[in-house]
Amino acid sequence: MNVLLVDDDYFVVTALEKKIDWTSLRIDGVYTANNVAQAREIIKQQEIHVLISDIEMPQGSGLELLAWIREEKYNVQTIFLTNYADFNYAQKAIELQSFEYFLKPIEFDKLMLIIQKAVAKANEQRHAAKAQQEGYFWQKNQSKIVEHFWRKLASCSSSVPMKPAAIANAVQEQHLDYGMTDLFQPLLLNLFPYDGSMGKEEKDLFDFALLNVLGELFRHPAFAVETMLEHSPRNWIAVLKWTQPPDARLIEELCASFIHQANRALKCDACCNVAPAGELGGIGSILKQLLDMNETVTKSRNRILHVSRDRLTEDAAYAPPDLALLDELLNHNEPAAFLNETSRYMRMMPSTSALSRFRLDIVQLVYAFLKNKGIPVHQLYTGKTHDQLLMQSLNSLEDMEEYLRYLVNTAMQYRHGAAEPTSVVEAVKQFIQSHYGRDLTRNALAETVYLHPDYLARLFKKETGVSLGSYVIQTRISAAKLLLETSRHSVYAIASKVGYDNYSYFSKLFKQVVGCTPNEYKKVKQ
């Protein structure tokens, strides 16, 4: 398989040649061109399967090159690299059926995945005619039938597991090559992507990378992987069919390897839930046990749980922690000791229901602490950050620890801010002066000092005599005046630098505050 790199920047082409591991992508030939004319000649002479091209080039654009490729009926997967986040470019690229549109600077890890997907697509198209003759499309359809069979089994097992007779009927109706005594083993994989990682921001690429990792790891002559399906967000079920007697040690090693690869390659934590192997006739009950354990057992990240030993037979009685001690730690301003004590206590909780009751106790304790200080609790814990941390808090012990850190640190910061309003206002003023080019909304400023936006606005006006919005405007206009006096930037560029993308609005504000337009001010001062 061959790839063609097209960019008028010699250094970009060289970087792509050197930094991409073409051998691992099974690319045999890497050709390069610095303009559209050179690229056309190479495509005429060589069979090119993947094209990676810049869009803006002096002697013709990448979009024109792709249009020519489509006219000439060349079967090429095209990836565009560009400095311009221009909707018109993106729209044209979509119309020409480009494979991907990727903004520079280049993130080589993500580009590797995109190229891998393009190679897979090119391979699929290359072999389409031959594959049709050999029954490829039948096989592909069969894999969908198998996935549907297991998805339905898992869905039913969430409530009432399918009986052996119903499973046998489904196997017969869908013409699956299964016997009722075949041995299967389901695994449930929980994934916890790190903040800022691909799993948080680009789910499609993350899922593709995940399936690649699973496909590489779960290969063994002792079993076949029947299907891998996402049962719920970031919870994947893998079903193994044993061709040899089940090997518990092998499964343990594979799960440990997967957790290591998830940490390293996928930039996420993972938890593996292992069900026992069983005959197809009883697989519904096994799936139910696995799904029940996933819902009821408290999970800790990067661990392997086994249905046979970790599943709860009945909900353990909940005993609250030493609430008097925790209240004392809060009142003595010892948040670190408070969090250490709650973390120690949580580690003894076997069930998510106990963890939920524990969370309720801690929330009520912190709310009571704030209420006694005269702090309006109902205004404090609102917004996207709180809601997201609360929603995720029962996913794992680590998620609960993160939520409690937010809960307690916000309370202590709020208490500190209420006790020393001057220091809080000074901190906000310094933040505005250092970041006047950002989007300085009330909510964003309030988050920097752990205060509710309404409370911060009242506090700021009381301490300074100026509203928060007016202070932001004054700071930005002062910065703009200095730049107009001392720099060679255009007025449009200065407006953007001080936080105003709308030039007309900036000019109007400037005239209201200074008494003349930015252009008039610049002429007088320079």
TrEMBL record:
SMART domains: HTH_ARAC (SM00342), REC (SM00448)
HTH araC/xylS-type domain residues: 426-524
Superkingdom to which the source organism belongs: Bacteria
UniProtKB keywords: DNA-binding, Phosphoprotein, Transcription, Transcription regulation
Pfam families hit by this protein: HTH_18 (PF12833), Response_reg (PF00072)
Domain Response regulatory: 2-119
Protein's recorded name: Response regulator
Residues in the signal sequence: none
